[in-house]
């Protein structure tokens, strides 16, 4: 039995603790007392990783035990490819505070809204701003189509990853997402790809277009291909896994790309110039630049 009696009025004590709600270590203060936990709980945000179906089912049990959304605040969620799509469809509507979602389901679950169990689940995600979605090709077609799902119009950041389809085409429809400012996808060479990338770049709100390449492609080759297709713009960043290794601690791919774009603008460089490796790591500006992978 706790014999501690607060010396301050509860309302004043509550106001004091609520001043800490934006502190990165706010969860530590929840250990002070049960009442403090109750006060701060609505301000705690969680990043949930569900790599497989058993973990997803456990999380679903937690959601059933905590039916009030105010009991938890999930802002970021990752679901691996082995999570059952129907389990995901039960989880997503219960996470309406989501701002970042990473899912890796087969494309056939996303493309066909009539049979897609995630369709109505997506509609509940009104706060979603950043979506990472892994797409695979349909057995009957190499053409990918980004469905007109209402929730996607809220997105500002979209990362699309596809497998063999990436070399042939590009998902259609992203250029018409009105709030989209950041797009990341595999480098693709199809004519339709060129047209839709130009549409996206012509939007005044476009900030960054990341083109991913594998380690077998040289940035210089890809940049020359983009020039021939008249895709020449300082907002295009050709990125590989090797280059991403130079991100600063805590820096995601979007911030990393923004840093390169801003440097190009400040230095009035060639559209495909990038900072030398030593400056990528420490963030120093330099009058030197690497163009097409060569000094």
Written account of the structure:
The protein has 295 residues and is of the alpha/beta class. Among the domains are: 1-44; 46-206. It has twelve helices and ten strands. It has helices spanning 10-18, 26-29, 34-40, 53-65, 85-91, 107-111, 119-123, 191-201, 219-228, 241-244, 253-267, 277-282; strands spanning 46-50, 74-79, 100-103, 130-135, 157-162, 182-186, 208-212, 236-239, 273-274, 290-291. The strands form two sheets. The protein has an eight-stranded parallel sheet. Strands 9-10 form a two-stranded antiparallel ribbon. α4 links the parallel β1 and β2. α4 packs parallel to α5 (85-91). The radius of gyration is 23 Å and the shape is globular.
Task: Tell me briefly what this model is.
By secondary structure, the protein is α/β, with parallel strands linked by helices. Helices cover 33% and strands 15% of the residues.
Strand order of the largest sheet: 1-2-3-4-5-6-7-8
Order of helices and strands: HHHEHEHEHHEEEHEHEHHEHE
Strand residues, percent: 15-25%
What percent of residues adopt helix (DSSP H or I)? 25-40%
What is the number of strand segments? 10
Write the layout of secondary structure elements.
Elements (H helix, E strand, L loop, with lengths): L9 H9 L7 H4 L4 H7 L5 E5 L2 H13 L8 E6 L5 H7 L8 E4 L3 H5 L7 H5 L6 E6 L21 E6 L19 E5 L4 H11 L6 E5 L6 H10 L7 E4 L1 H4 L8 H15 L5 E2 L2 H6 L7 E2 L4
Parallel strand pairs: 1-2, 2-3, 3-4, 4-5, 5-6, 6-7, 7-8
Antiparallel strand pairs: 9-10
Key traits:
single chain; 295 residues; alpha/beta; 8-stranded parallel beta sheet; 12 helices; 10 strands; globular; disordered C terminus
């Amino acid at each position: 039995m706790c014999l501690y009696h607060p010396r301050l009025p509860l309302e004043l004590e509550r106001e004091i603790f609520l001043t800490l709600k934006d502190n990165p270590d706010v969860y530590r203060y929840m250990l002070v007392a049960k009442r403090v936990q109750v006060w701060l709980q609505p301000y705690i945000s969680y990043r949930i990783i569900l790599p497989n179906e058993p973990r997803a089912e456990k999380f679903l049990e937690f959601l059933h035990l905590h039916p009030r959304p105010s009991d938890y605040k999930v802002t970021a969620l990752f679901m691996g490819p082995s999570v059952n799509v129907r389990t995901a469809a039960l989880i997503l509507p219960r996470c309406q505070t989501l701002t970042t979602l990473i899912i890796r389901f087969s494309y056939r679950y996303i493309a066909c809204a009539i049979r897609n169990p995630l369709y109505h689940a997506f509609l509940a995600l009104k706060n979603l701003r950043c979506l990472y979605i892994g797409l695979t090709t349909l057995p009957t077609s190499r053409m990918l189509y980004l469905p007109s799902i209402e929730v996607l119009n809220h997105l500002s950041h979209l990362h699309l990853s596809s497998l063999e389809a990436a070399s042939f085409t590009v998902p259609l429809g992203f250029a018409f997402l009105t709030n989209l400012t950041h797009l990341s996808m595999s480098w693709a060479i199809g004519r339709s790809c060129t047209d839709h990338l130009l549409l996206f770049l012509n939007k005044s709100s476009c900030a960054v277009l990341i083109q991913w390449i594998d380690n077998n492609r040289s940035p210089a080759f890809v940049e020359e291909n983009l020039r021939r297709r008249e895709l020449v713009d300082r907002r295009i960043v050709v990125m590989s896994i090797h280059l991403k290794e130079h991100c600063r601690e805590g820096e995601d791919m979007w911030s990393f790309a923004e840093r390169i774009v801003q440097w190009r603008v400040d230095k009035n460089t060639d559209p495909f110039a990038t900072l030398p490796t030593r400056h990528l790591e420490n963030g120093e500006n330099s009058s030197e630049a690497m163009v097409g992978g060569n000094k």
